[in-house]
Amino acid sequence: MPRQPRLDIPDTLHHVIVRGIEKRDIFADDDDKERFVSRLAYLLTDSSTKCFAWALMSNHFHLLLMPTKASLSEFMRRLLTGYAVYFNRKHQRAGHLFQNRYKSIICEEEPYFLELVRYIHLNPLRAGLVSNLTELDRYPWSGQAVLMGNRTMDGQVTAEVLARFGKGKVRSTRAYQEFIADGVGAGHRDELVGGGLNRSLQGSEEQEISASDERILGSGEFVERLTAVKSTSTRSKLHLTPAELLSIVSLATGVDPEKISRPNKERTAARARAIFCWLAIRHLGLTGKEAGEATGLGSAGVSIAARRGEKIMQQDPLLSKKISEILV
């Protein structure tokens, strides 16, 4: 069965899992890990994305994110592409570094928020990268060390996590440590990485199976609400072709579609091309390669143009409104 498209909904919790291609290592040494963490921290701040938990392993990593402005897909594209370019150059390799498709599960905050924080931060202990909780608190490649005050990372949200364990930093930190210790014996928890579990609602005589979706971890009601929102918000977008989107951008900007679809130095054409790249990725879900085929740009060029296009749309509300009205 074909995989369903990812759900990319702002202000919701996403458990993201990224693995190396063919289970290969994606971090060769601590310098690689530090480079990745620095890039992660920069993008979290730049995109106003919240990170509540993270852990780097040898051939994969986990993130618990909440996008607020930029889409998750854009955030992950910038994170993975930039790191892959660095890694390939440093280690003189070519080709894909990550599996073609990262895993993203939208999670209902209650009761899963703290369970996910604990599950992610216990990964290094389960994998044997550290031997005990004391070492885990100082393991530099996990958000656990940040929560314990043993390292810093811009963009990681600590106050919202510790506040759930009481008032006062000392008291809340101690209670959080006890919570982490209580989860050591739980081992691997499939329900936190698989999503889409059918959950039974007990009745007097028979069971009713609640709604489920492999992309969502939450109650049946939560699943129904999210899929309804996604269906409504993307219905019109899914029927647009790149050629139709070119026409829409042309109509809104007054730039001929042929000028948009061919690289040139004309300022108005470059501006329209940037808007097209942003909309193609955001509204149509195109990859950088697919958007590049419509504009004559490479994947890296599309990524740069899309970021510029987003800023143009934010700085020109009249144009944004005009395009939105055409899209509807």
Please summarize what this structure is:
Helix content is 52%, strand content 10%.
Highlighted features:
single chain; 328 residues; alpha+beta; Alpha-Beta Plaits; Chromosomal Replication Initiator Protein Dnaa, Chain: A; 2 domains; five-stranded mixed beta sheet; two-stranded antiparallel sheet; 10% strand
Query: Can you name the CATH architecture of the largest domain?
Result: 2-Layer Sandwich
Strand order of the largest sheet: 2-3-1-4-7
Number of helices: 16
Helical proportion, percent range: 40-55%
Question: According to CATH, what is the class of the largest domain?
Answer: Alpha Beta
The CATH H-level homologous superfamily of the largest domain: Transposase IS200-like
Q: Could you state the oligomeric state of the chains shown?
A: single chain
**Averaged pLDDT:** 82
How many E-type strands? 7
CATH topology of the largest domain: Alpha-Beta Plaits
Question: Which stretches are low in confidence, meaning pLDDT under 50 for 5 or more residues running?
Answer: 195-212, 231-238
The tally of domains stands at 2
Global structural class:
alpha+beta
SSE string, helix = H, strand = E? EHEEHEHHHHHHHEEEHHHHHHH
- End-to-end distance, in Å? 31 Å
Radius of gyration: 22 Å
Shape: globular
- Biggest sheet features: 5 strands, mixed
The proportion of strand residues reads 5-15%
